[in-house]
Design a protein that fits this description.
This is MFS transporter permease. GO terms for molecular function: transmembrane transporter activity. It is found in: Membrane. It is a multi-pass membrane protein. Keywords: Membrane, Transmembrane, Transmembrane helix, Transport. By secondary structure, this protein is mainly α. The chain folds into 2 domains: 407 residues, Up-down Bundle (Growth Hormone, Chain: A); 128 residues, no CATH class. α20 packs across α22. The longest helix has 34 residues. It starts with 5 loop residues before the first helix and ends in an 8-residue tail after the last helix. The C terminus is likely disordered.
Length: 549
């Protein structure tokens, strides 16, 4: 495909839907202020250690496992609200209300004596924020893919606006708590009351925008009916699925919350290996049961020649509650993942997921310890507010737009390569800052370059995930892919403080290591560039790919 002109690329930003995407991006980034930089600053001011602060970041685990409940956002209706707002907007508005309530509760706590409660409500806030992200990302893809022949280019423009909005919420509005707390008249508890009120103001967007049109409900009901047509005759498979599916999900959650109650006689270093083997075995058994059901569904279609909706009507009276529950779970939780692997092929699908996991690993380690690093180098809360937050905010908005124009003109893959290389190189400036100390001009330069490279890479990254989704499973599939990227930022990034301690506080070496972490993802991207490019071009040539498979 020939490169588009600059004028052609800029025309995509005339779409009014992008303003909605920007506003929702602000709301998406804002919870990270509460449980990220603001909470880190609060804990640091209360005297907690680097390791404790890093491990406290495990509450972000909600963002890495939100794919487990993301299919519910494609299927479940919020009582009363869905009828008035629609599926997407009702989920967004509900989660935003929960975020407000959690922030208000945090404002009443004493960190020294109620640290456990603080972690609990922080986790509730993270779950609400992660669920909000599911609904917002699905809304963006749904609203931008309606009736478009050039969905890839519009997705790139939408990714830029979402990225700019996210950083407006995280860095722009995120500077406010540090500005407030730098005054002797403000305490962190009072700051969190302000943050709750700001989140309430952001929730107004969900009440005034339009709900995207969708045939999702019909498609999912059809899949459920397909399974119902055979499940009464496959009771053994039904029971196996009902047993294995929750076990798989519980094991993943158990591994992500740091293996509570792990037997002492088993060495802790084997935790991840044992959990991984258990999940692989259960998924294998589950896949065998599912394969038999899929074969049976295919046989019914061939033998009857009837649409499955007619077949199930004939057998409706014979179905029991086990069959109905199994069919609902398969259509809601399993079908999105199954469709992703069937459409892309198992090998390419796994390769895509591996790249997503690796791409922002270095950024994960850098981001989690950045506030602690700034404070230990010698910068004040006010310095952090003006340099780290405000400069990063402005830089990200400008360069996310520039990066999106480049991505529209030259393609998503080139944007990923350039963004990844730039992100790796920019981390080295933090090493220079660690050596030179609290030099404000260097702080400003480092934040500027880091914001530029992160924005460029994020636009192409979000655009890639967006174009790979099937519209019938937007929330499920985007969350599955995005959660893998978040997994590195949350689970592995949470140990960044331990790594710094292991290096005896050698921040310069730490940031060199984070720069090297980007290299494997770029090598992996290069190895799958051809099939991935073909997949992206196929999406461009078949804009109706979002119909149910």
């Amino acid at each position: 495909m020939p490169a588009r002109s600059l004028f052609q690329s800029l025309r995509y930003f005339q779409d009014r839907r992008l303003l909605t995407v920007f506003c929702f991006g602000i709301a998406s980034g804002f919870p990270w202020v509460m449980i990220g930089s603001a909470m880190t600053g609060w804990l640091k001011d209360e005297g907690l250690s680097r390791s404790s602060i890093g491990l406290f970041g495990l509450i972000f685990v909600a963002y890495s496992i939100n794919f487990l409940w993301s299919p519910l956002a494609d299927r479940l209706k919020i009582p009363l609200l869905t009828a008035k707002l629609g599926l997407r907007r009702s989920w967004i508005f509900t989660t935003q209300l929960f975020i407000c309530l959690c922030a208000l509760q945090l404002s009443t706590l004493d960190v020294t004596n109620q640290l456990s409660l603080m972690a609990l409500f922080g986790l509730c806030l993270a779950v609400s924020g992660a669920t909000q992200d599911i609904a917002i990302d699905a809304y963006r893809i749904d609203i931008l893919s309606q009736g478009e022949d050039h969905s890839n280019e519009l997705m790139a423009a939408g990714s830029a606006m979402a990225t700019a909005g996210w950083w407006t919420g995280y860095a722009g509005l995120g500077s406010i708590p540090f500005i407030l707390v730098s005054s002797p008249n403000w305490q962190w508890s009072e700051v969190f009351m302000v943050l709750a009120l700001m989140m309430a103001a952001l929730s107004v967007t969900a009440l005034v925008v339009n709900e995207p049109a969708s045939q999702r409900e019909q498609a999912l009901n059809q899949i459920q009916q397909d399974y119902l047509s055979v499940l009464p005759n496959y009771r053994r498979q039904s029971m196996g699925i009902l047993l294995l599916l929750p076990l798989i999900m519980l094991t993943i959650v158990y591994a992500n919350i740091d293996y509570p109650g792990w037997p002492e006689f088993i060495d802790g270093q084997y935790q991840f290996g044992i959990a991984s083997v258990a999940v692989v075995v259960m998924i294998t058994l589950f896949a065998r049961q599912l394969s038999k059901l899929n074969q049976a569904v295919g046989t019914v279609k061939v033998n009857t020649g009837e649409p499955q909706s007619l077949v199930i009507l004939a057998n409706n009276n014979n179905t029991d509650i086990i069959a109905r529950l199994t069919a609902w779970l398969l259509a809601t939780l399993v079908a999105p993942i199954q469709e992703f692997f069937q459409r892309n092929g198992v090998r390419l699908a796994l390769s895509i997921l591996m790249f997503i996991f690796l791409f922002k690993l270095g950024e994960a380690y850098l981001g989690r310890m950045s506030i602690v690093f700034y404070r230990e180098v010698g910068f004040s809360n006010e310095d952090i507010a003006y340099y780290s937050k405000l400069i990063n905010w402005g830089t990200t908005i400008v360069f996310s737009l520039i990066g999106s124009v480049f991505t529209i003109r030259y393609g998503i893959l080139k944007g990923l390569f350039i963004g990844g290389i730039a992100m790796s190189a920019s981390n080295l400036l933090f090493s220079v800052m660690a050596v030179m100390g609290p030099v404000k001009w260097l702080f400003a330069l480092t934040v500027f370059v880091d914001g530029f490279t992160s924005a460029w890479g994020s636009v192409a990254f979000v655009a890639l995930l967006s174009v790979l989704c099937n519209k019938s499973f937007t929330a499920s599939q985007y969350a599955l892919m995005a959660s893998l990227g978040t997994f590195g930022r949350v689970m592995l990034g949470s140990y960044s403080g331990i790594v710094v301690d292991w290096l005896d506080g050698n921040w310069a070496l730490f940031f060199v290591l984070t720069a090297m972490m980007v290299i494997p993802s770029l090598l992996f991207l290069y190895s799958i560039r051809k099939p991935l490019k073909a997949l992206i071009e196929q999406n461009e040539s078949t804009p109706d790919k979002c119909k149910a498979s």
